[in-house]
Write the structure tokens for this entry.
Amino acid sequence: MKGIHNFSEIGKLNKVLLHKIGNEIEALVPDNFERLLFDDIPYLKIARQEYDKFAELLTSNGVEVVYYIDETAKALKDSAVRSEFTSRFIDESEIGSPRVKEAIKGYLDRMDIRDMVETVISGVKKEEVGCPDPNSLADYISRAYPYYTDPMPNLYFTRDPGACVGNGMNVHHMSTKARRREALLLHYMFAYNKDFAPEGSQMWYDYDQEYSIEGGDVLVLSKDVVAIGLSQRTTAAGIERFAENILGNSEFRKVLVFDIPKCRAFMHLDTVFTMVDYDKFTIHPEIEGPLQIFEITLDKNGKARFQSRQEELVNILSSELKMTAIELIRCGGDDRMAAQREQWNDGSNTLAIAPGVVVTYERNYVTNDLLTKRGVKVLTIPSSELSRGRGGPRCMSCPVNRDDI
């Protein structure tokens, strides 16, 4: 049994948590793009084929692949735990009518466990529950919308709801309402599925804490240092809470905070910067220049200590990894148009499955060629539909267990 163990970004990947894209995507329409955080509608049939190829590639390279639905279902075998979960899920879905809440609770509780988990992800439809006549203005206004609870189309980006760091885990408070219930699934998985999180696994952050953090901003640089992006979706207060918890209770000695642009194109740290080998990183050219960095360490009394500096990225990485030469491989190379195009299609969002071995989207051919020329083995997957969700192979994976390096 491979428990939670992750002290790097590049150690051989042994176990990963995925969510195969499902019927939740069929709920996307232009009217709800903004609320559900999409810019386009993936074609489900092809997206599933592409995702299967991603999972098959991982499996063929010795990675154990586990899935959100299966692992959550294991956590809910106890009837009391399951009942508590459905009640919390309904509360998180912000349903105003007590009658509707009661109807949804009964509907979910009558289901097979696995079907129930799949349903809460794909959305609870009114026609399947039976829609009570509206007895409030809110019920009347919302009667045309086909769902009682919104689907979770972003869940195939399993990197964000949580992050395995060291021998513990963050279950994140997501910054948007559209994604917060994803972390509720992971909360129960961690608490009640001992195959996933064996006894002794640490909790560094939980989803009901008040400040937002998202997993795309969390990079395990080494056994000593965790990097976190201060981004559009990860707050300074959340970072500080995480840092105090992990630095005081683990082998990590420092949290490095990267202040990155607060915009959708630079949504998380891993959209502009990922590690692909001991001394190699993919980057977006716009973050090569001097960056504002904040260091969080603990003093001898266990109190957080802060320090800021502004430095070139290559110098920061050389210093923290104790290497004299760090290679930064530009997404799109020196071609400004290619850089913008491949950045939008997550050319910097690589998933390392071993030192110098990465999974990328085949569409980012300029960046892939540059990686190959630098000695990195590139394993590509198709992504005509997956990429419409604005996330790459790193976004689509939550590494649970890696070899130490």
The mean pLDDT is 91. The CA atoms of residues 237 and 326 lie 31 Å apart. The longest strand covers residues 291-298. DSSP finds 13 helices and 19 strands in the chain.
